[in-house]
Amino acid sequence: MGEAQELQLQIMGQEAEKTTQKAEETNDTNQPTFPKKKSKWWLARIFIYTFFLLVGQTVATILGRLYFDRGGNSKWMATFVQTAGFPINLLFYFFTPFKNLKPSNNIIIIHTNSTSKLKLVLIYTMFGIFLAANCLLYSLGLLYLPVSTFSLISASQLGFNALFSFFLNSQKFTPFIINSVFVLTISSTLLVFQDDSTESKKISKGEYVIGYICTVTASAGYALMLSSTQFCFKKVFKQENFKIVLDMIFYPSIVATLAILVGLFASGEWKGLKKDMEGFELGNVSYLMTLIWTAINWQVFSIGCTGLIFEVSSLFSNVISTLGLPIVPVLAVFIFHDKMDGLKVIAMVLAMWGFLSYIYQHYLDDYKSKTGASILNDTVKEEVSQDSTIQRKLVQE
User: Fold this and answer.
1) What pTM does this model have?
2) Angle, vertex CA 194, rays to CA 190 and CA 200, nearest 5
3) What angle do CA 78, 148, 143 make, to 5 degrees?
């Protein structure tokens, strides 16, 4: 009888432990919160991914504008360099140990049979084609807009991301997130009414509107890709290491690069590439270096962006991208002599307001998750302690 009671006690302890673990996993899964246990290595990864995202995004955008500003005219070449740097990721495949990582709260991966190869091929192909179309829209936006205007309009992707995450990843809307989405939407919409864009870029009002529409559409498409990537991490992939981050960059980039090459040759722009190089104001070597470093920095950005999606959420990755919002417009004033008029300043202030609103929501979510986990753990421990005391008395009797 004593052995049976001891066995019952062990089973009760195991059930309590499972209950605690389950509660931790399901607590606030609809919010883009940080993991409960912030190890030093996890924080280091977040810092590295953030650095990659901000540096890659800033440098690639500036170089992309430099290409058009100094005589480059091929929109397909500007699109091509956004994905053509994918071979760089091979270095990470060879030199990175792919050890399993503990998933974060909003990336709970169930260990079942591995994803079928056919399903993976379909996912990578669809993502690649979508990526190619999105890169083309971004190129058109950079072609027709000042880089400062382009960057500020791109802030609208955070609002789109929140919307898509609501449907795909059960993102919960709070007053601060709604405020962030609304303010960022107003911020980007204001820029369509500015008057000095045509003067600074020497383009027609019609071309400016085309650039605006392409940039907004690209921002929406990019936000959809981020939310879909998080959905795949959460529902489709069964591994928990850096390899799946690289796979979600490497294979879609191959498909996108091939699709862009088809567009380059089908459009006939490949015939004018030599003339495009010779007409570049900074010289042939600078032409090649501009394209090469643009390609490299877009890959650096992709690693940082996808890594943050894996570690936290797509919405958090987009917030960090918005954090770099003031960098490009400020640099553009000095590099390209873009005008920072009152409307752009207001748009920038609103964009930063939206960003800070979302960051504050992140803080509240993190605080609540810590408080809830602490209360839950104390409650479970107290219940287990009481049950253990009762069982010991029964065993003694």
Assistant:
1) 0.73
2) 135
3) 30
